[in-house]
Amino acid sequence: MTKQDRPATDIYVVGTGIVGYRQLTSEATAALERSGSIHLLHTQEIVYEHFEAEYDADLIDLRDGYQENEIREDIYERMAGRILSEAEEATEPVAFALYGHPLVYVSPAKLILEEAPARDLTVDVRPGVSAMDCLYTDLNLDPARKGIQMYEATDLLLREYDLNNYVPLMIWQIDLKEYYPTDHTVVLCRTSTTPLAESERIEYELDNLEAIHETVTPTHTLYVPPARERQIQRPELREAVRSTGHLEGITETREE
Predict the structure, then answer these.
(1) Which of 2, 53, 100, 145 is most buried (most C-beta within 10 Å)?
(2) pLDDT tens, position by position, for the chain (256 residues)?
(3) How many other C-beta atoms can be found within 10 angstroms of the C-beta atom of residue 212?
(4) Domain final residue pick, 83, 106, 129
(5) How many structural domains are present in the chain?
(6) Nearest to residue 99, comparing CAs of 58, 25, 171, 47?
(7) Together in a domain, 141 and 74
(8) Domain containing 211: what range?
């Protein structure tokens, strides 16, 4: 099949959000409606039922691709290869729909993006609501105020990044006593994934972090509030940013 015979977008990579199918965005829905087939990878059966009822496309359940004791990297490569190969022959777009945000902790989506140019395929990514988005709400946290640190625990242990205890931290369970006082309160969080369930929020003092072992699951995130307040280091810059002249300059630039 020549490029002229294929659709303008060959593959849609779509995030379905965290709470079932209720967080599907309008642009994600539009992509799914344009697709001739939908490869769906999700944790909730109700999402598969919704897709079967709402979309005319052929629905492929990617959960069938998991084999017991198989290396995850091999599973992801096979999954991505299957979607890429189908897109090369399809006359309608092929959709790859995933739980949460399609590029957050999703290896097969990244493999598709890396391989698609070599196959002369176009990929359109439609963002979805991620667990991090929901945690901002659960914790009443604005990352624009003091920034945010987020690490995957194993990677943090392997690379030994320095933690900044002026800045809020999202992390899986780890020893933090080098950076925070022992009575510092941390929060074990799990955002709700169904409409009827409530998000979970459990507070611990850092000195009692071992107690988390009894509660933590792979679906939890550890939130560590700042331990200190960092003072402004350049007050003259703050005044300049707040000045009328600075605001007028921004307005003039936008008008141009």
Answers:
(1) 100
(2) 555 666 789 999 999 998 889 999 999 999 999 999 999 999 889 999 999 999 999 999 998 888 777 888 899 999 999 999 999 999 999 999 999 999 988 899 999 999 999 999 999 999 999 988 988 888 889 999 889 998 887 777 778 888 898 999 887 544 465 667 777 887 878 777 777 677 887 777 777 666 665 666 667 777 778 777 777 777 777 777 677 665 566 555 545 5
(3) 15
(4) 129
(5) 2
(6) 47
(7) no
(8) 132-224
